[in-house]
Amino acid sequence: IALGTAAGLALVSLAVAIASAVGRSRFARQVQHEGRRLFSGGAGADFHDAPIDDARLDALPAPAARYLRWAGVLNKTPSRYGRLQQVGRFRTGPSAKWMPIAADQYYAMDTPGFVWFAVAQPGPVMHIRVRDRLLDGHGEIDGRLLSLIRVVHVEGDEVDQGVMLRYLSELVWLPSAFLSPCVSFAEVEDADRRDSHARVSLRIGEREVSGELEVDEEGKPLCFYTERYYADGKSEPRLERWKTPCEAWGELGGFMVPTRGKAVWELAEGDFEYADLEILRVDHDVPSLFSEV
Fold this sequence. Notes:
By secondary structure, the protein is of the alpha+beta class. Helices cover 23% and strands 44% of the residues. Strands 1, 2, 3, 4, 5, 6, 7, 8, 9, 10, 11, 12, 13 and 14 form a 14-stranded antiparallel beta sheet that branches. A hairpin with a 5-residue loop joins β9 and β10. The termini are far apart. The relative contact order is 0.16. Residues 11-16 have low confidence and may be disordered.
Protein backbone atom coordinates (compact mmCIF):
# COMPACT_ATOMS: atom_id res chain seq x y z
CA ILE A 1 0.00 0.00 0.00
CA ALA A 2 2.81 2.38 0.88
CA LEU A 3 4.47 1.80 -2.48
CA GLY A 4 1.16 2.27 -4.27
CA THR A 5 0.48 5.47 -2.37
CA ALA A 6 3.94 6.78 -3.15
CA ALA A 7 3.53 5.93 -6.81
CA GLY A 8 0.14 7.60 -6.87
CA LEU A 9 1.50 10.75 -5.26
CA ALA A 10 4.36 10.77 -7.74
CA LEU A 11 1.91 10.56 -10.64
CA VAL A 12 -0.21 13.36 -9.19
CA SER A 13 2.89 15.52 -8.71
CA LEU A 14 3.98 14.82 -12.26
CA ALA A 15 0.55 15.68 -13.61
CA VAL A 16 0.50 18.95 -11.66
CA ALA A 17 4.00 19.82 -12.88
CA ILE A 18 3.03 19.14 -16.50
CA ALA A 19 -0.20 21.13 -16.21
CA SER A 20 1.68 24.01 -14.57
CA ALA A 21 4.25 24.01 -17.36
CA VAL A 22 1.48 24.11 -19.96
CA GLY A 23 -0.19 26.96 -18.09
CA ARG A 24 3.08 28.85 -17.88
CA SER A 25 3.60 28.49 -21.62
CA ARG A 26 0.10 29.76 -22.37
CA PHE A 27 0.52 32.67 -19.96
CA ALA A 28 3.85 33.56 -21.56
CA ARG A 29 2.30 33.57 -25.02
CA GLN A 30 -0.48 35.83 -23.77
CA VAL A 31 2.02 38.34 -22.33
CA GLN A 32 4.10 38.22 -25.53
CA HIS A 33 1.02 38.85 -27.67
CA GLU A 34 -0.09 41.78 -25.53
CA GLY A 35 3.43 43.19 -25.45
CA ARG A 36 3.54 43.16 -29.25
CA ARG A 37 0.15 44.89 -29.34
CA LEU A 38 1.46 47.53 -26.96
CA PHE A 39 4.58 48.20 -29.00
CA SER A 40 2.82 48.14 -32.37
CA GLY A 41 0.84 51.31 -31.72
CA GLY A 42 1.11 54.05 -34.32
CA ALA A 43 3.79 56.69 -34.17
CA GLY A 44 2.93 59.71 -32.09
CA ALA A 45 2.80 63.42 -32.63
CA ASP A 46 5.64 65.86 -33.32
CA PHE A 47 6.51 66.14 -29.63
CA HIS A 48 8.80 63.14 -30.07
CA ASP A 49 10.89 64.87 -32.68
CA ALA A 50 12.19 67.84 -30.67
CA PRO A 51 14.34 67.86 -27.51
CA ILE A 52 12.67 69.25 -24.40
CA ASP A 53 13.67 72.86 -23.82
CA ASP A 54 13.32 75.42 -21.03
CA ALA A 55 10.35 77.11 -22.69
CA ARG A 56 8.38 73.90 -22.55
CA LEU A 57 9.10 73.39 -18.86
CA ASP A 58 8.53 77.04 -17.98
CA ALA A 59 4.94 76.71 -19.23
CA LEU A 60 4.18 74.13 -16.51
CA PRO A 61 3.19 74.73 -12.88
CA ALA A 62 6.32 75.41 -10.80
CA PRO A 63 6.41 72.04 -8.96
CA ALA A 64 6.07 70.12 -12.24
CA ALA A 65 8.83 72.11 -13.93
CA ARG A 66 11.08 71.72 -10.90
CA TYR A 67 10.48 67.98 -10.83
CA LEU A 68 11.16 67.46 -14.54
CA ARG A 69 14.40 69.46 -14.36
CA TRP A 70 15.48 67.35 -11.38
CA ALA A 71 14.61 64.19 -13.33
CA GLY A 72 16.92 65.29 -16.15
CA VAL A 73 14.54 65.63 -19.09
CA LEU A 74 16.00 68.93 -20.32
CA ASN A 75 17.49 68.67 -23.82
CA LYS A 76 16.36 65.06 -24.19
CA THR A 77 13.82 63.73 -26.66
CA PRO A 78 10.70 62.26 -25.00
CA SER A 79 10.62 58.49 -24.86
CA ARG A 80 8.09 56.57 -26.92
CA TYR A 81 8.41 53.24 -25.07
CA GLY A 82 9.71 52.06 -21.73
CA ARG A 83 10.30 48.85 -19.84
CA LEU A 84 11.43 48.07 -16.31
CA GLN A 85 12.07 45.28 -13.84
CA GLN A 86 11.09 45.35 -10.18
CA VAL A 87 11.16 43.16 -7.09
CA GLY A 88 9.55 43.47 -3.70
CA ARG A 89 6.58 42.21 -1.75
CA PHE A 90 2.84 42.25 -2.18
CA ARG A 91 -0.26 41.27 -0.22
CA THR A 92 -3.93 40.96 -1.08
CA GLY A 93 -5.54 42.28 2.10
CA PRO A 94 -4.83 44.20 5.33
CA SER A 95 -4.47 40.95 7.31
CA ALA A 96 -2.93 38.85 4.51
CA LYS A 97 0.67 37.69 4.56
CA TRP A 98 3.27 39.40 2.42
CA MET A 99 4.43 37.51 -0.68
CA PRO A 100 7.74 38.02 -2.50
CA ILE A 101 7.16 39.28 -6.02
CA ALA A 102 9.19 39.92 -9.16
CA ALA A 103 7.80 41.70 -12.20
CA ASP A 104 8.52 42.99 -15.70
CA GLN A 105 6.56 45.93 -17.04
CA TYR A 106 6.25 47.46 -20.50
CA TYR A 107 4.91 50.90 -21.43
CA ALA A 108 3.83 52.83 -24.51
CA MET A 109 3.45 56.60 -24.45
CA ASP A 110 1.98 57.54 -27.86
CA THR A 111 -1.14 55.50 -27.16
CA PRO A 112 -0.83 55.24 -23.37
CA GLY A 113 -0.74 51.67 -22.16
CA PHE A 114 1.17 49.08 -20.18
CA VAL A 115 1.49 45.34 -19.63
CA TRP A 116 2.68 44.17 -16.20
CA PHE A 117 3.71 40.56 -15.68
CA ALA A 118 4.51 39.37 -12.16
CA VAL A 119 5.26 36.17 -10.30
CA ALA A 120 4.31 36.07 -6.61
CA GLN A 121 5.38 33.31 -4.21
CA PRO A 122 2.72 32.65 -1.54
CA GLY A 123 4.61 29.52 -0.42
CA PRO A 124 7.80 27.53 -0.97
CA VAL A 125 6.38 25.47 -3.84
CA MET A 126 3.52 27.73 -4.90
CA HIS A 127 3.44 30.60 -7.34
CA ILE A 128 0.85 32.94 -8.77
CA ARG A 129 1.35 34.55 -12.17
CA VAL A 130 -0.40 37.86 -12.58
CA ARG A 131 -0.89 40.06 -15.61
CA ASP A 132 -2.24 43.60 -15.30
CA ARG A 133 -2.72 45.66 -18.44
CA LEU A 134 -3.95 48.89 -19.97
CA LEU A 135 -4.57 48.51 -23.71
CA ASP A 136 -6.76 50.72 -25.90
CA GLY A 137 -8.00 52.54 -22.81
CA HIS A 138 -9.25 49.39 -21.08
CA GLY A 139 -7.85 47.42 -18.19
CA GLU A 140 -7.84 43.77 -17.21
CA ILE A 141 -6.25 41.87 -14.33
CA ASP A 142 -5.70 38.12 -14.60
CA GLY A 143 -4.07 35.92 -11.96
CA ARG A 144 -3.45 32.16 -12.00
CA LEU A 145 -2.23 29.83 -9.28
CA LEU A 146 0.54 27.57 -10.59
CA SER A 147 0.07 29.40 -13.91
CA LEU A 148 -3.10 27.35 -14.38
CA ILE A 149 -5.95 27.90 -11.91
CA ARG A 150 -7.55 31.31 -12.32
CA VAL A 151 -7.80 33.01 -8.93
CA VAL A 152 -8.59 36.53 -10.10
CA HIS A 153 -10.03 38.06 -13.25
CA VAL A 154 -11.49 41.56 -13.23
CA GLU A 155 -12.32 44.14 -15.88
CA GLY A 156 -14.86 46.91 -16.40
CA ASP A 157 -15.19 50.66 -15.87
CA GLU A 158 -13.72 50.65 -12.36
CA VAL A 159 -10.72 48.65 -13.55
CA ASP A 160 -10.26 51.00 -16.52
CA GLN A 161 -10.12 53.95 -14.13
CA GLY A 162 -7.72 52.13 -11.83
CA VAL A 163 -5.20 51.08 -14.47
CA MET A 164 -5.19 54.57 -15.98
CA LEU A 165 -4.36 56.00 -12.56
CA ARG A 166 -1.71 53.35 -12.09
CA TYR A 167 -0.13 54.32 -15.42
CA LEU A 168 -0.22 58.01 -14.48
CA SER A 169 1.35 57.42 -11.07
CA GLU A 170 4.16 55.32 -12.58
CA LEU A 171 5.31 57.93 -15.08
CA VAL A 172 7.81 59.03 -12.42
CA TRP A 173 9.86 56.05 -13.70
CA LEU A 174 9.63 57.41 -17.27
CA PRO A 175 9.65 61.16 -16.61
CA SER A 176 9.75 62.45 -20.18
CA ALA A 177 6.36 60.74 -20.71
CA PHE A 178 4.78 63.46 -18.58
CA LEU A 179 5.14 65.64 -21.70
CA SER A 180 2.98 63.33 -23.80
CA PRO A 181 0.00 65.04 -25.47
CA CYS A 182 -2.24 62.74 -23.41
CA VAL A 183 -0.86 64.13 -20.12
CA SER A 184 -1.43 67.63 -18.76
CA PHE A 185 -0.48 69.61 -15.65
CA ALA A 186 -2.42 72.29 -13.80
CA GLU A 187 -2.07 74.23 -10.58
CA VAL A 188 -3.86 72.84 -7.53
CA GLU A 189 -6.76 74.87 -6.17
CA ASP A 190 -5.25 75.27 -2.70
CA ALA A 191 -2.87 78.23 -2.92
CA ASP A 192 -0.97 77.05 0.18
CA ARG A 193 0.11 73.88 -1.66
CA ARG A 194 0.95 75.34 -5.06
CA ASP A 195 4.67 75.41 -4.30
CA SER A 196 4.76 71.67 -3.59
CA HIS A 197 1.87 70.04 -5.47
CA ALA A 198 0.74 69.96 -9.11
CA ARG A 199 -2.38 68.41 -10.55
CA VAL A 200 -1.66 65.94 -13.35
CA SER A 201 -4.20 64.33 -15.68
CA LEU A 202 -4.26 61.56 -18.27
CA ARG A 203 -6.81 61.44 -21.07
CA ILE A 204 -7.48 58.41 -23.27
CA GLY A 205 -10.43 58.88 -25.59
CA GLU A 206 -13.37 60.25 -23.59
CA ARG A 207 -12.05 59.18 -20.19
CA GLU A 208 -9.81 61.35 -18.03
CA VAL A 209 -8.25 60.61 -14.65
CA SER A 210 -6.33 62.96 -12.38
CA GLY A 211 -4.21 63.07 -9.26
CA GLU A 212 -1.71 65.25 -7.45
CA LEU A 213 2.06 64.94 -7.57
CA GLU A 214 3.93 66.17 -4.50
CA VAL A 215 7.46 67.48 -5.08
CA ASP A 216 10.09 68.67 -2.59
CA GLU A 217 12.18 71.84 -2.85
CA GLU A 218 14.90 70.07 -4.79
CA GLY A 219 12.43 68.58 -7.27
CA LYS A 220 12.29 64.99 -6.04
CA PRO A 221 8.83 63.39 -6.39
CA LEU A 222 7.57 62.46 -2.92
CA CYS A 223 4.11 61.01 -3.52
CA PHE A 224 1.21 60.69 -5.93
CA TYR A 225 -2.32 61.06 -4.48
CA THR A 226 -5.73 60.38 -5.98
CA GLU A 227 -9.05 58.60 -5.50
CA ARG A 228 -9.32 55.14 -7.01
CA TYR A 229 -11.90 52.35 -6.90
CA TYR A 230 -11.17 49.91 -4.08
CA ALA A 231 -12.59 46.39 -4.11
CA ASP A 232 -12.32 44.12 -1.08
CA GLY A 233 -14.42 41.28 -2.52
CA LYS A 234 -17.12 41.84 0.10
CA SER A 235 -18.95 44.83 -1.35
CA GLU A 236 -19.24 46.88 -4.52
CA PRO A 237 -16.11 48.83 -5.55
CA ARG A 238 -15.98 52.26 -3.93
CA LEU A 239 -13.79 55.32 -4.31
CA GLU A 240 -11.07 55.57 -1.68
CA ARG A 241 -7.94 57.64 -1.25
CA TRP A 242 -4.89 55.98 -2.82
CA LYS A 243 -1.25 57.06 -2.72
CA THR A 244 2.15 55.88 -3.95
CA PRO A 245 4.86 57.34 -1.69
CA CYS A 246 8.49 57.26 -2.88
CA GLU A 247 11.20 56.17 -0.45
CA ALA A 248 14.47 56.20 -2.40
CA TRP A 249 15.78 57.85 -5.57
CA GLY A 250 18.61 57.32 -8.02
CA GLU A 251 19.59 57.28 -11.68
CA LEU A 252 18.16 54.56 -13.90
CA GLY A 253 17.95 54.62 -17.68
CA GLY A 254 19.56 58.04 -17.91
CA PHE A 255 17.00 59.83 -15.70
CA MET A 256 16.63 60.47 -11.97
CA VAL A 257 13.71 58.37 -10.73
CA PRO A 258 12.29 56.87 -7.54
CA THR A 259 14.00 53.52 -7.01
CA ARG A 260 11.76 52.33 -4.20
CA GLY A 261 8.14 53.03 -3.41
CA LYS A 262 4.92 51.74 -1.95
CA ALA A 263 1.22 51.61 -2.82
CA VAL A 264 -1.21 52.42 -0.01
CA TRP A 265 -4.98 52.63 0.40
CA GLU A 266 -6.11 55.26 2.94
CA LEU A 267 -9.16 53.49 4.38
CA ALA A 268 -11.43 54.58 7.21
CA GLU A 269 -10.16 51.71 9.35
CA GLY A 270 -6.52 52.66 8.70
CA ASP A 271 -3.90 52.64 5.97
CA PHE A 272 -3.58 49.43 3.95
CA GLU A 273 -0.12 49.17 2.42
CA TYR A 274 -0.19 46.39 -0.16
CA ALA A 275 2.91 46.84 -2.34
CA ASP A 276 6.54 47.60 -1.50
CA LEU A 277 8.69 47.62 -4.63
CA GLU A 278 12.26 48.29 -5.71
CA ILE A 279 13.05 49.22 -9.31
CA LEU A 280 16.09 47.38 -10.61
CA ARG A 281 16.25 48.48 -14.24
CA VAL A 282 14.64 50.98 -16.61
CA ASP A 283 15.11 51.03 -20.40
CA HIS A 284 13.83 53.66 -22.80
CA ASP A 285 12.77 53.13 -26.40
CA VAL A 286 13.48 49.41 -26.43
CA PRO A 287 10.17 48.05 -27.83
CA SER A 288 10.79 44.41 -26.97
CA LEU A 289 10.19 42.05 -24.07
CA PHE A 290 12.81 40.89 -21.64
CA SER A 291 14.06 37.42 -22.50
CA GLU A 292 12.42 35.70 -19.53
CA VAL A 293 8.59 35.78 -19.32
